[in-house]
Design a protein that fits this description.
Length: about 230
């Protein structure tokens, strides 16, 4: 894994932006626009290179199989799940159609209640099966890659590691070029942004372990799994 460093501030990127576009007085491109573009760029980077790893837990309640994200994990800004654990055991994740088939199959899990073994997502909630037979404090844990918090002020450190600075700058410059109706140059900058992300992705020494992939809207109040192909 890459050893991450965070040393660049939003103000450095904003100054480069103003200088590059001859807008030193920040007349056409103001700080609010720069801040918004930076945060949009951060989300674009993290969606492809999820570097921030977090965990969250919630209580397992006997007889309750459905756990809405808005109440169980209200602050989780999830890019993808890496693992879901119930009562110390890693759960098998199934897309909802496969989850339905598993439960309906003759050789499926026979008991309606017991120790959860399978998990799916539907309608903004995690659903466990079998339905938990006992209550366990903080018994349900999610391990996930997360979106960082938005940058609130340009004087703050950027919420992405230094190695992504150039890719973030390319993204921000592309937005400014679009504002100036220079769409060809903007497309070229976005291509540089994508190439930079690909280089960093390939540089990562990723573990070949399975994970539950998911894409989320970071502006939503809560997040839920989508049916996607295994990576």
């Amino acid at each position: 894994m890459v050893a991450e460093t965070f040393t660049y501030k939003g103000s450095r990127l904003a100054e480069e932006l103003y200088d590059r576009f001859g807008d030193v007085g920040a007349v056409q491109i103001n700080s609010t626009m720069a801040l918004r573009w930076i945060n949009d760029g951060v989300r674009a980077i993290v969606a492809q290179n999820p570097f921030l790893k977090k965990t969250a837990t919630t209580h397992i309640v006997a007889g309750q199989s459905v756990y809405p994200f808005e109440t169980a994990f209200p602050t989780a800004k999830i890019v993808q799940f890496d693992m879901i654990v119930a009562q110390g055991t890693r759960l098998e994740f199934l897309p909802f159609p496969e989850f339905e088939k598993r439960l309906a199959a003759p050789d499926g899990i026979p008991t309606p209640t017991g120790r959860p073994a399978v998990v799916t997502s539907y309608g903004g909630s995690l659903t466990l099966w079998p339905t938990p037979a006992e209550s366990v404090p903080n018994g349900l844990a999610i391990y996930f890659s997360a979106y960082p918090d938005d940058l609130q002020d340009l004087d703050e450190l950027l919420p992405v590691p230094d190695r992504f600075y150039n890719a973030l700058r390319d993204y921000v410059f592309a937005q400014a070029l679009e504002l100036d109706d220079n769409f060809e140059a903007a497309a070229a900058k976005m291509q540089q942004h994508e190439m930079g992300l690909q280089r960093e992705y390939e540089r990562e020494n990723k573990s070949p372990t399975d994970f539950y992939p998911v894409s989320r809207d970071p502006d939503a109040e809560y997040y839920f799994l989508t049916d996607v192909e295994w990576v």
